[in-house]
Known about the structure:
signal, alpha+beta, 2 domains, Ig-like_fold, Ig-like_dom_sf, 4-stranded antiparallel β-sheet, Immunoglobulin-like, membrane, glycoprotein, 20% helix
Amino acid sequence: MFWLLPSLPFVFCLGSGNAVSQSNSTSLVVNGVLGGSVILPVKLPTEVDVSIITWHYNGTAIVTIDLKREVKMVLNPRWGERLNFTQMYSLNLSNLMMADTGHYSIQFTTKTTTIVPSGYTLRIFRQLRNLKVINHVQLSENETCDIYLICAVENADDTSSFWWQDSRNICLNGTNFTTSWDPKNSSGQNYTCIAKNPVTKLSLSVSAQSLCEGVLTKENLYQGGTWIITTFVVAILIIILVCILVWRKRRGRFSSEFSLQGCRFLSCFF
């Protein structure tokens, strides 16, 4: 099982298609899955009589096939039984390892010449697994549901891409997604996390309604409204108390000044 994929930027939310990637004019990029298998196709030239086929890995011969005597010789024990060939001598490499990454080329030998057609650049990737969405929700002061989401997956590396897509096909790159949902002003919303690397694409959707049903209960909304009213009443009481204290302080100062002036007035007669 193998993939021929483009070395082009992802175009999110527009769908995906099959394509071929070439790192240069003579090397075709092939993506394989760790532990899987891959086939590197070969097209025998028809204009010449090929006697020997030689496969090279990073410039070193790994196997030769004598077409006249129908003999295959593996030149490196590392490959062992993992190397097989189709009827047309395409290379079938099984039980792929990360160490198999590299450049593969083929050489045709005739009685008079040697032909080296275009080769392959093999890349090995781990499949992404166990996609999950970590969520945290809370009731905001304006009685909407604040949603915090994180997309997580096993075997992610620097070749992995993540993005979020909502019911309106609006996309946001990255693993984290934050939004607010108001059931009074919005219909049900779904948020989809998508994880992709060159050999895997996974997606998982969550519903705003199901995420928020625990915090948007009547009891919570009532408690939120009660908290606002209580805060307002306490603030009013504090203001009233401060006003009373200021008034009493000013009243006491006025009474003292009035008594002092009365004593001075009486001293004029004695």
